[in-house]
Each structure stands twice: as structure tokens, then as C-alpha cells.
Amino acid sequence: MSARAHRVVVIRGDGIGPELVDSALAVLDAVERHSGGFHLELEFHEGGAAQYQRVGQALTPDSLDACRKADAILKGPVGLPWVQRPDGTEAGLLGGILRNGLDLYANVRPIKLFPGIPAPIKREPGQVDYVIVRENTEGLYLSRGLGVGNDNAVADVMLMTRPGVERIARFAFDLARTRNGAPKDGVRRVTCVDKSNVLRSMAFFRRVYDEVGERYPDVQRDYLYSDACAQALVMEPERFDVLVMENFLGDLLSDLGGGTVGGLGLCPSGNYGDRIAYFEPIHGSAPTLAGKDRASPLSQIGCLAMLLDKVGEAKAARQVETAIWRALESGALKMGADGCPVGGTRAATQAVIEHLG
Ligand code: IPM
Ligand code: MN
What we know:
ten-stranded mixed beta sheet, 2 domains, 11 helices, Isopropylmalate Dehydrogenase, binds 3-isopropylmalic acid, binds manganese (II) ion, alpha/beta, 18% strand
């Protein structure tokens, strides 16, 4: 019997991107050998700031097309702060191209406290386990590259549409149905995070969330203003299961959540549309760490687990997640307070590989 094959586009990215992606691919290699039965056919494409410097585009139309045809995309962090467009925004980012270009409207950001992490918040491992569902195609960031202004004033507009809010709310409620509820009480809950007390667009977001939520009587509806949510993510993280919010709020609060559990170097994410999805760490390309064998590969290895789930290889996905957990729990893999693994990127990758199985 031949192995199940899935086509995956790989974008190694800038800064620490290539070494992180190499780590994830080393884990993939080990998982494929270990579990057998499936194979990812990898197709490598260039994307990001270095590609922009080479060809004047962060991603060529051919590469975008390859992404469109793939079963999934594994992407390293991209962008270099000094590679900018004339308006001062970064030229090497792919968010606009991939998220809006492929209509990947749901940005899924799991925040989990692993064992043995010197995290700022003090909880037992597993007591923090929630997912931020960040709307990914509209909100304030729809204005990417479209802001209007002159030398005296500039405006970026926040847009909410009914279909846009409906689909992200549905996604969040559907996701809650696949989970075991909040660590605090086991209740399946979707928290709507907004600033509906101030902004009309946000009040609309909450209203549409409510309309959608009525069709999910088995999932609890819950509401927090975004400022209060920032506090609760630090003071009462165990109450959260799934949170749904506008694009910019999701960008901010996912970094906050990542900080509470020990840093973004532990945090993977998935960008999902109706068919295609791509997976990337939630952090940037950290050029000062590049090539030093220092950065945490766990965010990118976590992306591999999410990707395996997406292509239908749930068993392999659990194997990867469990290996991360066990490597940390056994002390074979230790994270420093700076968010980097003690002993470096390659040793951390090896520790994960040794705990597969
Ligand atoms: C993220 C990143 C991107 C975003 C940047 C790099 C454009 O911060 O994925 O969270 O703002 O969405
Ligand atoms: Mn961000």
C-alpha cells in the first residue's frame, strides 16, 4: 500500500525563519519514519524581505499560485525591519498577500502553558489552554497599504462586514465544539472580545456574534471589553476556552497571551480559509538571533503539528505535540527566561525528536 501523500508549500522566510523551518522539517522526517503511512511532498518557495530585495515582490504570483494549489503551507517568519516601502511600512511581510489573497479569514492562535517553563504567570501546566481566533481579512488591518493621508493627517479605516463577522464567529463556535472547555470549569465557552462600548464597528461585531451564537446553545456566550480582557488574560487565564475578536485586537492580545506562558517562541498559529491554510509562528523573524542557533524552534514545530491536523494526519499531529510536552516535562528540553531554549535551537529540536513515540 502506498503512503498517503499531501502537497505542502514551504516558505523558509527571513532572519531565524530558515533555521526554525529546518527544525520543523527534521521533526517531520522523524515522524514520517516513525509512524509511516503518510508523506508530505514539499515544494520550496522563496518569500519575504530577502525575496523582495531580489525581485521587487515579497512573493511572486507563481509562488502564490503554488500556495493556492497546495494542501497546506508551512511558513517561517518573514520581514526585515529595514526593508521598507517608501511609506515606511515593511515590504517583506506576507500577511496581506496570503491572508487577503487566499481569503484565509481565521487566524487560530493557541496559547498553552507547557511544563517546566519559567513563565511570568504561575499556574500548573494545562491550566492555561485557550485559543484566540483572530479575524484575519478585515477589521483595522484591511487598511494595510490603503491608508489615506498627507503630511498633516493619515487615516486607516476599520471595516466590519456582516459576512466577515458571521464566518469568524461560526468558526469560533465550531472550534469550541471540538475542545474540552475552559480549564477552570470544563465549560465550552466563546468569549467575544471587543470595544463595543466605544466603537460602532465593535458593537456591530458583538451583535453579529450574538446572532451566530444563538445557533450554538451548547456553547456558552461570554463578553469582555478588550482592555478588561488584557487584564483577565494575566489574572484569570483559566476561564478562557475560545476567544474571538477583530484583527488588530487579536494581533495585540495573542502576543500578550504568548508572553504570559513564556514567550512567543512557544506559539504556533494557523491561518484558515474554507480550503487552504498556512501555518507560521506568531513572532517575527528576530534578525538579531539569526544564524546563532539560539531561537526557540517550538513555535515552528507546533506549526507542523497544526499542519498535520489540517491535512488529516491527526495521529502524527498528536505525536508531535506530545513530544514537545514530554521533552519539556522530562527536563531534556529547558527554556530560559529569555524565551530561548537552553543549549540552542538544534539541541532543542533533537530533544523533541527523541521524545516522539
Ligand atoms: C502577526 C504579525 C503580522 C500581523 C505582521 C508581521 C504583519 O504581527 O502575524 O501577528 O500584524 O498580522
Ligand atoms: Mn503580531
